[in-house]
Amino acid sequence: MKPCTFEYYKPSSMEEALDLMHQYGGEAKILAGGQSLVPAMNFRLATPGILIDINGLQDLSYIKEHRKHGVLIGAMARYSELEKSDVVAKKCPLLHETIPYIAHPQIRNRGTMGGSLVHADPAAELPAVMLALDASLRLRNKDGERVVAITDFFTGMFGTAMKEDEILTEVAIPHMPKRYGFAFDEVSRRHGDYAMVGVAVSLNVDRKGRCEKGKIVFFSVGDAPVFAEKASQLLDKQNVSEELLENIANVASSEDIEPGSDIHASADYRRHLAKVLTKKTLKRAFDKALA
Amino acid sequence: MATRYFGQRIRRNEDPRLLTGQALFTDDVNLPNTLHVAFYRSDYAHGKILSIDTEEAKKRPGVIGVYTAEDLGDYWQRGPLLVPPPPIKDIVFNERTQVPLAKDKICHAGEAVVMVVAESRYIAEDAVEDIEVDIDFLDAVVDIEKAMTDESPLVHDDIEKNIAAHVVQEKGSYSSIRDKAHTVISRKFIYDRGTAAAMENRGVVANWDERNQQLTVWDTTQAPIPIRNGLAAMLGLSQSQVRVIAPFIGGGFGPKIMMFYPEEVLIPWVSKQLKRPVKWIEDREENFFSTTHERGQVHEAEIAVAEDGKILGIHDVFVHDAGAYAPYGLTVPINSQCTLLGCYDVPNYYSEFTAVFTNKPIVTPYRGAGRQHGVFVMERLLDLAAQKLGMTPVEIRRKNFIPQDAFPYDNEIIYQDFSPLVYDSGNYEPALKRAVELIEYDKFIKEEQPRLLQEGKRVGIGIVSYVEGTGIGPYEGAKVSIDPSGKVSLVTGIGTQGQGHFTSFAQIVSEVLDVPVEDVRVVTGDTLEFGWGAGTFASRGAVVAGSACHEAALAVKKKIHKLASEILEASEDDLEVSGGNVQVKGVPDTAISLGELAAKANPLRGAVKPGTEPGLEATSYFGPSRGTTASGVHAMIVSVDPETFLVNIERYIVVHDCGRVINPMILDGQIQGGVAQGIGNAFYEQLFFDENGQLLNASFMDYLLPTSLDVPKIEGDHIETPSPLNPLGVKGAGEAGAIPVGALYAQAIENAFHDCNLEILEIPLSPNRLYEIISQNKTKEQI
Ligand SMILES: Cc1cc2nc3c(=O)[nH]c(=O)nc-3n(C[C@H](O)[C@H](O)[C@H](O)COP(=O)(O)OP(=O)(O)OC[C@H]3O[C@@H](n4cnc5c(N)ncnc54)[C@H](O)[C@@H]3O)c2cc1C
After folding, report:
1. What does the record list as coiled-coil region(s) (chain B) (predicted)?
2. Closest Cβ opposite residue B285 in set A1, A4, A264
3. Which chain B residue shows the shortest CA-CA distance from A274?
4. Least crowded by CB within 10 Å, which of A62, A149, B35, B216?
5. How many separate domains does chain B show?
6. What is the domain extent for residue B77?
7. Is A44 on the interface with B (CB under 8 A)?
C-alpha cells in the first residue's frame, strides 16, 4: 500500500496553481485534505504523476456572508471549520446539521468542502446537501472562471463537469427563503461510516403553511446524488399531513430512485430505508418551517 | 489464603513502556542496510500458473532480487502439519499444508507467487507491478456445502470431493432415544467467516550475521520457540545459531500462531542468501488475504428433549470450511464438536463433521477457535426447545446444567489436546443466578419490556452460557532468578501479545517471594533467554506458563531458605521471606536482604561445597495432565429500531468463572476485549466472497469492526471455582468474552420480536439481514 512515484508541487498563489494546472492538466491532481485522494493513491487506484498541493493557498478557506449571493465558502474550508462556523449555523442550518455525520473528527479536521464535491462520491453527504441547497460552484483555470449550477455539476459515478485544468475555488449557497424548513438524516452501520441511505430535505412554506418549494435529495442510492424529482413535485402547494408524507415517501422510494445492492444493503432494504427517512425528515422540515 | 499480590488489581508493569511509545514492535527494528520485501499475490482464487515473467521487475533500479518458487530450489517445501489428527476411530484426514510460493497452482486469492526484494518497500511494490503471471483461470470452490459434491471443482487435484477430514464422535446412542423424546427439534445453522483484524499486522525482520554465523529474527509470532526450531531445521543451522524474538505484538488472537507463514520461511532465507537484514511488514490489504481466517461452518442439528426440558440427546452433522490448506489440522472443528456440549449434561450425542478445502484463505484458530459455532448451535437449540415447551431460557439451562457434585465430568469424547473431554471442575448455577440478578431479568420481562413495547420500542433480553476448554499442554517453563540488587528476573518462553504477562506472571512470583510486583522484570518470547516451550494459544498462558513461574519461584524460595539457614544457623522451617528479606520467623533483626543473599550465592573466591549451584536461580516446567474448563454466562439487553433494524446494546453482563483470578483488572480487560470481538463477529464483521472466490471487502472501509461507540461497557462479576489441575487453581480466560456473543444476539433479538415468531439461525447478522429475515417472516405469517 505505497503510492506510485509522483512529483509534488506546493504553489503559494492561485496564479501559480493555475499555471501548474495549465501545464500538467490531466496528469495532475489537486491535493486538498487528502482524505480520499491519498488512500486511493496508496491502493494505487489513483496514480497521478503530479500532485499540486493547494494547502498553501490561505485565502481559499473563508466562510462569509454576501448580501446578494448568500453564503460563500472557499473550496479549502475544512469540515471542522464548517462545523464550528456561526455563519453556517445561522445561515445554512442544513449544512450545519449534516457535518457531524461525515466521517470522524480526525478526517473532518483535514477534509474540505471542495474535495468532497470534486470527489463526487455518490455516498457522500455534501454533494447531496449542496444539491438540496441549490448551490453554485465557481471554477477557475488559467483562462478565467465560470460558475456552474450544482444541478449541472455531477455527471455520474465520481464524475463532474470540471475540465482537466480547472480548480474549484468557491461554493455559493443562496439565502434561505422565509418560513424555511430543513432536515438531514442517514442510516449507516456505524457512526461516521458512509451511509447505506441518506436524505437531505430543504423547503419553505407560504403563509398558509403550503409548501412553496421543496427539494428532497438522496445519496447512496445511485451513481450520484439523486434529486427526487417526482416526490419533490408532489410537495407543491401542499399542507403537511400523514397521507402526504406517506404518499411522498412511497413515490420517492419506489419511483425516484434506482438503488443498487452491495454487501451492506440490498436494493430492497435501501428502498425501505429511503421511505422511512423521507417520512421522518419531511415531517421535521415542515415542523421547522411552520414553527 | 491471604494474598498480597495474587488476586490484586495491580497496575500493569508494561504500560509505561507501551503508553510512552517505548515498547519495541517488529516494525521498530530498523537495522542499517535493510532491504524490503513485497509480494506478488494472485488476483485469482483458483488457477494453473502457465508462466511467470519477472524480467522487467529485475531490471528496475533498486531491485536486489526477484524470487519464484523455482528459485527456491530445495528450500521450497510444504509447511509442517502443526496438529496431527487426534486418535479418533475411523477418522479420515487428508493432509495438505501451505507452500512458501505458489508453484503450479493458485489455491486462493492473495496467495504469494513472487517475492521481490528491493532497497525500499516503495521500489519493491513498483517492481511487483512489473511482474506478469499468466494464469489459466479455474472455477473456484467457494460454497462449503457444494464443495463436497461430485460436480465441484477440486482445490487439490488429488483430494476427492475436497474432503480434508471426516470425523464422527459419539456418546451414548442418540438413535435409541430419539423416538422416546417428547419433542425433537431440528434446524440448519450457519456461521460465516471473519478475520481477527489485530491492530498490528504481521511482520518479519531477519538479520543473518555472516561473521558470527548467527541468524536473528524478529517475528510477530505467538510461538517464537517453535519458529526457531523450524527455521534452524529448514536452514540447516543448529538451534543455537538462530535467535527468534517475538517483541511486543499488537494482538495475536490465534492467527499469529499459524506456522509457518510463507513470509516466515522466506525472509530469514533471503537474508541469509543476501547477507543483509531484510524486512517485510504486512500491510492491511495483505492481511485480509494472507493472514488466516476463521469461522465458516454449516450445521444440521437436532435436539431431543423430555417434557420437563431435560436434554435426552443432540445430533449434529456439520461442514467446516478449512480454506485452501489445513496446517492446523482439526483443532477448530474438534473444538466446535466438543464445545457444543457446553455446561450441560447431554447423555446421548452424535456429532459428525466434514472439513472441506475451498479456494479461500486458510482457516486456523481465531479467539474462540470453533467454540463459537458449537455454543451457537447448542444455545439456539435450547432456546427453540424452551419455546416449544413453554419454558424460559433460564429454566431450560438450569434444568440441564451439570450438577456441582458431578465433577470431574467425563463427556466421553476426545478433545483438541487428544485427551478425553473431561471437565476438571465447575459450578454453573451460581453464575446463572448472578447474571439473572444483575440484568434484572424478571423485572425486564414483566415490567420494562411491555412498557417499552407500548411506546413502540423493540427491546429484547438474552442470556446464554458456555464453557471454554483452556490451559492445554504440553508444557511451558520459566526461569526465576534474584539479582544482587534484590530485583527479580523472570523469563518464560511464550510470546506476549497484550495479555498483561509482564504483570500477571510477576504477581505469581511476587506472591511466593514477597517482593513488589514492579521489582519483577519479565522477559517473554526471546529464544536466547529461554529456549523451551510451545507458545501462547488456547488460553493457556496463565495456566501453563503461570504455573511454571510459580514452580520456579518456589524452587528459588527453597534455595533462599537453604542458603539463609546456613548463614543464620537456623533450620529452614524456621525461616520466612518477607518484604524482600529472609529472616528467622518473627525476628526482623536477623533479616538478610534477598539481594545480599544473591551476592553470597555467587562467591568470587574461596571454596563451595560439592554440588553447590551458584545464584538464587531456578528453572521449572509445568505440563498439565489435560486442559482446564472455564465457564460463564453472558446476558444482554438490546434495542432494535423497528424501522431501520439498527441494533443497540443497552446493557451487557458477563459472569465468568476462570478459577482463581490473578489480576481482576487484567481479567476485566480480557473479557471486555473478547466481548468487543464477539460483538464484531456477531453483528459487524463478515468476509464476503463472490462466486469466483474474490474477497469483496478487503479493507476497513467495508469490513466493519465495532468501534468504541458500538461496544458498551461490560458489567459483571466473577465466580471462582478453582481448577484441581494446577497449583494455582487457575483456568484460562482469553477467549471467554468472544465465544457466546452470537448466540446471545440471536436470542435477544428474537426476544425483542417475541410476538413475531422470528427465528435467527445464522451469524453474522446485520441490519440488512434482519430486515430480510423480518420481512420474510411477515409474508410467511400473512400466508
Ligand atoms: C475513514 C474515512 C471516512 C470517511 N467517511 C466519509 C463520510 O462518511 N462521508 C463523506 O462524504 N466522506 C467521507 N470520507 C471522505 C472525506 O469526506 C474526504 O475528505 C472528501 O471526500 C475529500 O475531501 P479532501 O479535501 O480530503 O479531498 P482530497 O482527498 O484531497 O481530494 C479529493 C479529490 O478532489 C480533487 N480536489 C480536491 N479539491 C479540489 C479543488 N479545490 N479543485 C479541484 N479538484 C479538487 C482532488 O484532486 C481529488 O481528486 C471519509 C474518509 C475517510 C478516510
Report:
1. none
2. A1
3. B644
4. A149
5. 3
6. 31-138+196-290
7. yes
